[in-house]
Design goal:
Glycosyl hydrolase, 23% helix, alpha+beta, nine-stranded antiparallel β-sheet, 914 residues, 15 helices, GH38_beta-1
């Protein structure tokens, strides 16, 4: 008889490396699972294949303990019975950078190819929403599909199905990104465990399949039905062939097969010919649900992890890779092996249960160590690279500007020319212990070093305002490549100054010299009294309660009541925020603050604002009872405690001489539990939408949620910044690792940035206490407020400032010597107001220099590129960075390249050399 439908049953397990158990306890269970899988596959028979969760790290984790099984594993992968890749890990989408996602795909492919071929499956089974650029990233990876479980109705709490109002007519859909890229989307409408634990016994099997066939057909667009046989840490169903045989016996009109995802896709594509699927566009953030099960507040769980991640990503992709590339152009070998190790170590913190901060405390303690390890490797690469570059820079000219010059290099590893205040430590004098002096004599000589009569000059001899702090006698050491360690004593100083117009992806040299010249502008100030900071672009007036008025002097627009702190209770969990019913937020509005001048220099002024604020100590006793009874957090009735504890908050506002934004540093000592702290920035701009930095995209989002949204809170994800504008003027709030914000529906379009969220339980399917998620103790947060005018061009300029805020300055000391690199240098120059620079690195396979940008706008633009280095040819490629056909280069060694709306564009430079 003709079969009316086909049930594709896919054996898999969704493997969270760490979650409700620490990593090693899950690890032990993984070893047992893969052992059982190999034994089953070795037997042959009807158990045909297994999908290894789309992440190659499982292979690493297994072989770390079972290296003797490598050949068995490789055989089954090459035979197509174990499907691996394409990712290294299954990462969270909104809390990891675009480049981290690219490295994830690149390393996943590289590792998979050691065993066979990566499965070209865009696999996002449990990712907490998906960014809008996912279709383009998949297409650039040679993947035409995306399997996902969250972000589009009809899934809800505990992954139950909705009853109507679907965003897609079927579980199969077309997903279109902002650039127009399209992929076939497969929504796990009945979750990625909808074919789990298939019964073998006849009566149970009949009941099971009656329900499961109906559930799948409710959403499927064809008779090709997908059943995922597995779940979180699910042991393999070894008797699945017997269960399939029973199903075939009971349902002769249905074909049951032990399938795999590639075969399912082929069958689905054939069956879909001529059918019209719904098109879903842009971000998948569960916009059309009630807002209670979106898991969005993982963006503010354990904020310290997000801050470490932002720093770790920036140091690797925006500092170490560009500097190592510059050093490679000068002849140093690019350390691919170290970068792979550092990226893998960092990405082990990127799964959704890890970076989202929604695991037990032991998991997140281990994450802190991983962040430190990755950063240590990156900083070692940076130190080695900048030494090579410094040795090649011609600093001989500084001898003409004063005696005993001590050169220093300022590196700008952002994609745009940059000015700003930097700090560098210099050895004013150094004496190696090998030179034979006693320790007492060595110390005396260093202490007697004369630091007087010195000024800082640029490469043209112009005096630069600076502040010098004598750090006194210090110990140090060198680690030469060809000798034993070399200890020394030194007299160290710390110099702070404004580096001006340092070229993009380049450097500028300065020197601290002994000179008769005196520092210019010594009496200039950016302060009026102790409450007003002002430069040519901005004016900041601080009120008695510590809030401030920001005037954009270019447009005259005034922003009032900025910088107020808000505090509310939180009776939710690591996944979701829940404010107690009827509670009114506490704020620092009207709370007197102690305001003092912290810094008054020609290049920067800073004001310190101190608050002593009493807030409730915790939730009341009812919360503990509701947690123990597993009361779903929207239904909780707990309130805040009547007991108050102090919260000390120190805010430092800093304005640089020609800065385009006001920098904010907040330090607070948290001694309270079950609460949230935010900083508020009312914009008073008329706008129904706002824009926010996401992965390779400036996403546009509605200020007002969809009609289905019931949650009073409408918090959302951000990466570098969020912006509210009216088409002419706007306010951008940039951050370092503060991934949660909300545009309040308060009549003022206030931007609220979450600084801290303190909760005491994991949440989800049971009670898992997480006392360390209360985040008690000292915390520091950093933001920058950037007003703009001039419409779209002004907004793009503000975005550039926000992106540069993410990236630290790098500096190093060198000596006086000749070199082939100019003291004001960059290996390339590019132009486009609409493009954001994303990456500069070397490709291991081709040896080529790779550069990446993305179009921030929804209209076409053009990239102009000119190289200051020799090359054989330039080509356009994808995020997998495979060599391509040469582009036409003009007579001066540059090119002009059209770039589409929201396009991610990668160029390869073949044969690059200085």
């Amino acid at each position: 008889m003709t079969k009316k439908r086909r049930a594709h049953i896919i054996s898999h397990t969704h493997w969270d490396r760490e979650w409700y158990l620490p990593y090693e306890k899950h690890h032990v269970r993984l070893i047992a699972l893969v052992d059982a899988l190999l034994d089953k596959l070795d037997q042959g028979g009807e158990f045909k294949s297994f999908y290894l969760d789309g992440q190659t790290i499982i292979l690493e984790d297994y072989l770390q303990v079972r290296p003797e099984n490598k050949e068995r594993l490789e055989k089954h992968i090459r035979d197509g019975r174990i499907l691996i890749g394409p990712w290294y890990i299954l990462q969270d989408a909104f809390l990891t950078s675009g480049e981290a996602n690219v490295r994830n795909m690149q390393i996943g492919h590289q590792d998979a190819k050691r065993y066979g071929e990566p499965a070209k499956i865009g696999y996002f089974p449990d990712t907490f929403g998906l960014v809008g650029q996912t279709p383009q990233l998949m297409q650039q990876s040679g993947i035409g599909n995306a399997f996902f479980g969250r972000g589009v109705k009809p899934t809800g709490f505990n992954n139950t199905v909705a009853d109507g109002g679907y965003e897609s007519s079927f579980s199969e859909l077309i997903w279109e990104g902002p650039d127009g890229s399209k992929v076939l989307g497969i929504l796990f409408a009945n979750w990625y465990s909808n074919g789990n634990e298939v019964p073998v016994e006849e009566e149970a099997a009949r009941a099971y399949w009656d329900r499961k066939l109906a559930d799948a057909e409710k959403y499927a667009s064809t008779g090709e039905l997908l059943y995922m046989n597995g779940c979180d840490h699910q042991p393999i169903q070894l008797d699945l062939p017997e269960a399939i045989a029973m199903a075939e016996k009971l349902y002769p009109d249905t074909e049951f097969i032990h399938s795999n995802l590639p075969d399912y896709l082929k069958a689905l594509e054939q069956a879909s010919e001529g059918k019209t699927l719904s098109t879903v566009q842009g971000e998948l953030r569960s916009q059309r649900t009630d807002g209670w099960g979106t898991l969005v507040n993982t963006a503010s769980a354990r904020v310290y992890l997000k801050q470490m991640n932002q720093e770790g990503q920036a140091v690797l992709e925006k500092v170490a890779e560009p500097l190592a590339s510059m050093a490679h152009l000068l002849g140093k070998k690019y350390p691919h092996h170290l970068f792979t190790y550092a990226w893998k170590t960092l990405m082990q913190n990127h799964p959704h249960d890890s970076i989202c901060g929604c695991s037990v405390d032991e998991v997140h303690r281990e994450m802190v160590t991983r962040f430190a390890k990755s950063k240590d490797v990156a900083e070692t690469i940076i130190d080695d690279s900048k030494t090579v570059i410094a040795d090649a820079v011609d600093t001989s000219g500084f001898a003409a500007y004063g005696e005993d010059p001590l050169p220093v290099l300022a590196f700008n590893t952002t994609g745009w020319s940059r000015s700003g205040v930097i700090t560098v430590e210099l050895d004013a004098a150094r004496l190696y212990l090998r030179e034979g002096f006693t320790l007492e004599e060595t110390a005396r000589r260093m202490k007697e070093t004369d630091l007087s009569g010195r000024v800082l000059v640029d490469e043209q001899g112009n005096v630069v305002d600076c502040t010098v702090e004598d750090l006194g006698l210090l110990f140090g050491y060198d680690l030469p490549d060809d000798r034993f360690r070399q200890p020394y004593m030194c007299r160290k100083v710390r110099i702070t100054f404004r580096a001006a117009d340092v070229p993009a992806l380049g450097l500028r040299a300065y020197a601290w010299v002994r000179s008769a010249k005196s520092s210019a502008s010594a009496a200039s100030t950016l302060l009026t009294g102790n409450r007003t900071l002002e430069n040519a672009s901005l004016k900041v007036e601080i009120s008695e309660d510590g809030s401030f008025v920001l005037t954009d002097k270019i447009s005259g627009r005034v922003y009032r009541d900025l910088g107020v702190y808000e505090n509310t209770g939180d009776i939710g969990n690591e996944y979701m925020y829940r404010q107690p019913e009827g509670e009114s937020p506490l704020t620092t509005k009207g709370l007197p603050a102690d305001i003092t001048v912290l810094d008054d220099k020609p290049y920067r002024a800073s004001v310190k604002i101190a608050h002593q604020w009493l807030i409730p100590a915790s939730a009341d006793e009812r919360l503990d009872q509701e947690q123990r009874e597993l009361v779903y957090y929207p239904n909780r009735k707990a309130q805040r405690s009547k007991t108050l504890v102090p919260m000390e908050i120190v805010t430092i506002l800093s304005l640089e001489a020609d800065g385009k934004g006001l920098q904010i540093e907040t330090r607070l000592n948290n001694q309270a539990k079950d609460h949230r702290v935010r900083m508020l920035f009312p914009t008073d701009l008329q706008a129904s939408q706002h824009r926010v930095d996401s992965m390779f995209e400036i996403a546009e989002r509605d200020n007002k949620p969809a009609p289905e949204w019931e949650n009073p809170s409408n918090t959302q994800h951000q990466q570098a910044f969020v912006e509210v504008g009216n088409g002419k003027e706007g306010l951008v709030v940039a951050n370092l690792g503060l991934n949660e914000y909300e545009v309040l529906r308060d009549g003022r379009n206030t931007i609220a940035v979450t600084l801290l969220r303190a909760v005491g339980e994991l949440g989800d399917w049971g009670l898992f206490p997480t006392p360390e998620a209360q985040c008690l103790g000292e915390h520091t947060f950093q933001m920058e407020v950037i007003p703009y005018s001039g419409g779209e061009r002004g907004a793009l300029s503000a975005y550039t400032e926000a992106y540069q805020f993410q990236i630290p300055w790098t500096a190093c000391q060198t000596d006086v010597h000749e070199g082939k690199v100019a003291p004001n240098y960059s290996p390339l120059h590019w132009e486009s107001a609409e493009l954001a620079f994303s990456s500069m690195k070397m490709n291991e396979e081709t040896g080529d220099l790779l550069l990446r940008w993305y179009n921030m706008c929804r209209q076409d633009t053009e990239l102009s590129l000119k190289l200051e280095i020799s090359s054989e040819h330039i080509y356009k490629t994808t995020i997998l960075e495979e060599a391509g056909k040469p582009l036409t280069v003009n007579a001066i060694g540059g090119l002009s390249l059209p770039v589409g709306s929201c396009e991610i564009v990668t160029l390869g430079i073949n044969g690059a050399a200085k």
